[in-house]
Specification:
2 strands
C-alpha cells in the first residue's frame, strides 16, 4: 500500500443501535456529542429515537406488552344484563374496566374512547 489510512466501517445491528439510543436518553449529552463519542451517525440516532418514540406512543414499548392479545370467542353469546341488546359489544379489560357499545354505535366516539384508555 502507499501509506494511506484505511477506515473500516463497522455496521451495527438493530439491537445495538436501539441500545445506544436508550443509552443516549440516559446520558445527558447532546445528540452530536453522544454520536461523536460513540462513532454513530447523527441520522442513525435520530431515526432510532423516533422509532422508539413511536413505539412508546402506540403502547407497544412496554415490557411484556404486545400489540395483540389472543382471545377465545364463546360459542353462544348470552346477555350479561337483561337490558342488553343483541349486537352489543362488550370488552372486559384485565384491570376490571368494561367498555360497552350498542348496535349502531358512533365509531368516532369509540375511537376517541379507545385513545383515552390507551393513555391510562
Amino acid at each position: 500500500m502507499s501509506g494511506e489510512a484505511v477506515s473500516v466501517v463497522h455496521r451495527r445491528g438493530h439491537a445495538e443501535i436501539a441500545r445506544l439510543a436508550s443509552l443516549y436518553r440516559a446520558s445527558g449529552l447532546g445528540r452530536s456529542e453522544f454520536c461523536r463519542r460513540h462513532g454513530l451517525a447523527l441520522s442513525t440516532l435520530n431515526r432510532h429515537l423516533k422509532k422508539q418514540q413511536q413505539q412508546e406512543h402506540r403502547g407497544d414499548g412496554g415490557v411484556g406488552r404486545g400489540p395483540l392479545v389472543e382471545v377465545e370467542l364463546a360459542a353462544a353469546v348470552s346477555p350479561v344484563c337483561p337490558g342488553d341488546q343483541p349486537g352489543a359489544l362488550t370488552v372486559l379489560l384485565s384491570n376490571g374496566r368494561k367498555v360497552e357499545v350498542g348496535d349502531g354505535f358512533d365509531d368516532e366516539t369509540l375511537r376517541r374512547l379507545v385513545a383515552v384508555l390507551e393513555r391510562l
